[in-house]
Design goal:
Length: 630
């Protein structure tokens, strides 16, 4: 683990240095936007946004870059549909996680996330393509491994016809074609008892009844009254985020679990040569793929954790695409002639006030009574209360709950969100206040959720809560996923708590994989920086309500969860939005999470790329669609 203590002078200097360095190293930039239709294909019009970046004469040393710097990639005209693949594409990213091919153990979503995005694996369905940052339809799905599906009239099941003749990659053995058995095994393994995998945790309870093979088809059974009208988002492949890639049961049986975990056997248009966690992934095209004909022969994705390393690789032409923070973009665009695109919804970087497990019941847990089994099953809350953690409230003690609420509000009010956006994020971000990703620009946002920057008010709340001299606190923020969670935000927050409130702050920069298990076994009682770019109306209750898997640090009372869980089955989008507003009202009042700022997910790409149709999903994806200039 990586720990360090803050001193006020050091981090203040860091913030000032960031601000000055950003100002001194750039000239004023003007962004002029043009919009034109490049190509119209049957059924859709592809609109391309051009960015023209130029220096403006004068001595002003500020940077003006609109947040509209994201662009859609040009679509090349009249390219042969089955041209022979050639060349190599190299992509620099902060993280290449180790492959964990078994769904029940894939906590990082390496199969349905990275593996799908890199075209190694495929899903039963995918989303309709829409140019980023447009959110694709949440209710319309495109067939992939499943050629068709039928929903029972009583919504008790969905039966999928699996496409014939899709071969598994055979470089590690002959595993035949994708079958209904593979699909059934993939999903059942994801939510079996003891699973710690990311995909299964995202499914709604009604869709964890179990799958079976019926007449050569894959049948997903659904609990009575538990049908999720947006089932494709969480069961499908590419389009919305880390979901499900289908894996081979025959390969698992033949290779054995240990070898299967790390030896990729997919069905996508790229075949893995080497997948070395925290180093690189290299893949070559799958000859005669049933669905796609990539034009690039070799794909290499390299882990470069340091921003400066990725910048240098882009400047020297070592890589064609690099994932970068917004503040690095103006100079890179100017010096490389590259273009920029955002992938994924901006993530509201949010402090989860862990240890506040207030749910009364956990229907899917071995012991369903949460509060009666706090010491054994929810030890983060039990130990946090025993140790007197100021931010943790005892739901059986009204005074404890109110004092902890005042503490959480005080710490939230002591954060200068706009300063963090301006300095840490270089202006590429927005202030945020609630974990549900209902940002201030959305019509559902309530001004009552906006947390003021009020140091005097924050100090008074600490006094009222019984902490006039402050207390010790550790804030955890992983640094190995900067496109999602920017650990420099946590550094700045820690300094503000020291300077404004006199707290004794420790920042823990342990990698995400190191501490994530604490959110599963419920030992977590350390506040941590996280956040999810929820889509409008998406069901958020399962991440903040009691269940056996990965949680967002808190569990809300049963009555609040009952409102949120209506989205598991509610087809009407307005009602879904209303349910999320009701949950957000409660979370804001109790400040169970304190959002700070949104972080965008930016990729800069070389002028050599003349075609690319990525999905909105938040990582580099869709290499199969990329064409390089001659």
């Amino acid at each position: 683990m990586s720990y360090f203590k803050f001193n006020s002078l050091g981090i203040s200097a860091l913030l000032i240095a960031l601000s000055l360095a950003f100002a001194a190293c750039t000239t004023e930039v003007e962004v002029i936007k043009e919009v034109e239709v490049i190509k119209e294909v049957p059924g859709e019009t592809v609109t391309v946004t051009k960015e023209i970046v130029k220096e403006v004469p004068g001595e002003t040393k500020t940077v003006t870059v609109t947040k509209e710097i994201e662009v859609s990639v040009p679509v090349a005209a009249d390219l042969p549909g089955a041209s022979k693949p050639k060349g190599k594409l190299t992509v620099a990213v902060p993280l290449v996680p180790p492959l964990v091919q078994l769904q029940s153990l894939d906590a990082r979503g390496t199969v349905g996330g990275f593996g799908i995005d890199w075209n190694i694996f495929e899903g039963i369905v995918r989303s309709q393509w829409a140019p980023p940052p447009t959110v694709p339809s949440q209710s319309t799905y495109v067939p992939e491994i499943a050629s068709s599906w039928e929903i029972a009239s009583d919504q008790s099941s969905i039966t999928f016809t699996i496409r014939d003749g899709i071969p598994w990659h055979d470089d590690r053995g002959d595993f035949g074609n994708v079958t209904a058995e593979d699909v059934v095994w993939t999903f059942n393994d994801s939510f079996k008892e003891g699973s710690t995998g990311n995909p299964g945790e995202q499914l709604t309870p009604g869709h964890k009844v179990g799958w079976e093979v019926v007449d050569g088809k894959a049948k997903m059974n659904v609990a009575a009254g538990g049908f999720d009208p947006l089932w494709g988002m969480l069961h499908g492949g590419i389009g919305w985020g880390a979901t499900f890639g289908i894996t081979s049961k025959k390969a698992y049986d033949a290779l054995g679990e240990d070898k299967f975990l790390t030896d990729a056997v997919g069905s996508g248009p790229y075949v893995v040569d080497a997948w070395d966690g925290h180093d690189q992934m290299t893949a070559k095209t799958s000859a005669g793929h049933w669905r796609a004909n990539p034009r690039i022969e070799t794909l290499q994705v390299i882990e470069m954790p340091e921003q400066g390393t990725r910048e240098a690789a882009m400047l020297t032409g070592e890589v064609e695409i690099a994932q970068m923070p917004g503040k690095a973009l103006p100079n890179l665009v100017e010096n490389t002639g590259g273009k920029v695109i955002t992938l994924g919804k901006p993530t509201p970087n949010t402090i989860y006030w862990s240890g506040n497990y207030w749910g009364q019941t956990c229907p899917d847990c071995a012991n369903t009574d949460v509060q009666a089994n706090l010491e054994t099953d929810w030890p983060g809350a039990y130990k946090g209360l025993a140790n007197g953690s100021a931010w943790i409230g005892d739901p059986g003690d009204a005074a404890s709950m109110e004092n902890a609420r005042l503490v959480r509000w005080a710490l939230s009010m002591a954060i200068d969100r706009q300063k963090i956006v301006d300095t840490v994020l270089g202006g590429f971000g927005e202030t945020a206040y609630v974990a549900s990703n209902i940002t201030p620009d959305r019509p559902e946002f309530s001004e009552e959720w906006r947390v003021p920057y009020d140091v005097a008010g924050a100090k008074q709340k600490l006094i009222d809560a019984g902490y006039p001299e402050g207390f010790e606190i550790t804030l955890w923020s992983a640094c190995n996923l900067p496109a999602i969670w920017d650990c420099e935000i946590a550094d700045a927050v820690g300094e503000m708590w020291i300077t404004n409130l006199g707290l004794d702050v420790t920042i823990d920069h342990a990698d995400y994989a190191v501490r994530r298990p604490e959110s599963v076994d419920k030992t977590m009682n350390t506040p941590w920086l996280h956040g999810i770019g929820w889509l409008p109306g998406q069901s958020i209750a399962n991440f903040y309500c009691a269940h056996p898997g990965h949680l967002g640090g808190v569990t809300l009372p049963d009555d609040i969860c009952a409102i949120g869980k209506q989205n598991d089955i509610e087809p009407d989008m307005d009602k879904r939005l209303g349910n999320n507003v009701a949950m957000t009202e409660y979370m804001s009042h109790w400040q169970t999470q304190s959002a700070v700022a949104t972080v965008g997910n930016y990729f800069i790409y070389s002028p050599k790329i003349v075609e690319w149709r990525p999905y909105m999903t938040g990582y580099f994806n869709s290499a199969e669609t990329i064409v390089l200039s001659e």
